[in-house]
Each structure stands twice: as structure tokens, then as C-alpha cells.
């Protein structure tokens, strides 16, 4: 069973204790993300005049937006990976087919060379017979 980690982080100027099965480094990274997002929102005109509830809602919406964008990007990467896997499978299949065709072509060339050698030998035999016949 995984060990539960507990660590204190600073979010929005307040020390908060976080715990989870993730590493302390990861929990600090999450806190840093939240702080960056709060700073980003704080730079928007009129944000500082909003109520705390509205600020929390905007922060939640921005985090949700980041989540859905990242999720969509992950889906796109997954689709790309699947497409590349299919393409790689097709290319491997084509390669194997080509290798089989090449091997068959090599065997055919070897067979044709063998037949050509036999025919060349037969031509030489017939030429010798013709020479002997003409000498008579």
C-alpha cells in the first residue's frame, strides 16, 4: 500500500497542510500552480474589485479550463499515437510483404539463371555436335 505524504504549502499567502499519496514534491508543484494561477488572475483588470466568492469561482473556472484543455491535448496525443501505431503496423506489414516478394523474386532469378545455364550448356553441346557433323 502506498504511503500517504503530508506537507505544508503556501497558497495565496496562507500556509495549508496538504496530504495525499503523491510525493511532497508533487504537492508543492500543485501549490505552485495554484499560486501562479492566482497571480495570473490578479493581473486582470477589475479582478481585485471582485468578491472573494467571485475570485474563487474565477480561479475554479480557470483551473477547470486548464484541465479540459490538457485533457483534450492528451486525447489528441493519444489519437496521434494510435494513428502512428496503425501506420507503423501497416508499414511493417508492407515491409514483410516486400521482403517475401523480394525473396520470391530472388528464387525466381536463381531458377531462371539455372535454366539459362542448362540452356547455355545445351547450346554448347549442340554446337559441338554441329561442328563434328560438319567435319564428317
Please give a quick description of this structure.
The chain is mainly alpha-helical and 136 residues long.
Topology:
Elements: E1 5-11, E2 14-20, H1 24-42, H2 52-135
Antiparallel strand pairs: 1-2
Helix pairs in contact: 1-2
Fill in the keyword field for this structure:
single chain; 136 residues; mainly alpha; two-stranded antiparallel ribbon; 76% helix; Cell division protein ZapA; cytoplasm; cell cycle; Bac_CellDiv_Activator; septation
Description:
By secondary structure, the protein is mainly α. The chain has a domain at 1-44. It is built from two helices and two strands. It has helices at residues 24-42, 52-135, and strands spanning 5-11, 14-20. A two-stranded antiparallel sheet has the order 1-2. A hairpin with a 2-residue loop joins β1 and β2. α1 (24-42) crosses α2 (52-135). The N and C termini lie far apart (103 Å). The mean pLDDT is 96.
Amino acid at each position: 500500500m502506498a504511503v500517504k505524504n503530508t506537507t505544508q504549502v503556501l497558497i495565496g499567502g496562507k500556509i495549508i497542510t496538504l496530504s495525499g499519496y503523491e510525493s511532497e514534491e508533487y504537492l508543492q508543484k500543485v501549490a505552485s500552480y495554484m499560486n501562479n494561477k492566482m497571480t495570473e488572475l490578479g493581473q486582470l483588470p477589475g479582478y481585485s474589485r471582485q468578491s472573494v466568492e467571485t475570485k474563487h469561482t474565477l480561479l475554479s473556472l480557470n483551473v477547470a479550463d486548464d484541465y479540459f484543455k490538457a485533457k483534450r491535448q492528451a486525447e489528441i496525443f493519444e489519437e496521434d499515437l494510435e494513428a502512428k501505431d496503425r501506420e507503423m503496423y501497416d508499414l511493417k506489414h508492407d515491409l514483410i510483404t516486400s521482403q517475401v516478394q523480394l525473396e520470391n523474386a530472388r528464387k525466381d532469378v536463381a531458377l531462371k539463371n539455372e535454366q539459362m545455364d542448362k540452356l547455355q550448356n545445351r547450346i554448347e553441346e549442340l554446337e559441338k555436335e554441329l561442328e563434328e557433323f560438319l567435319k564428317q
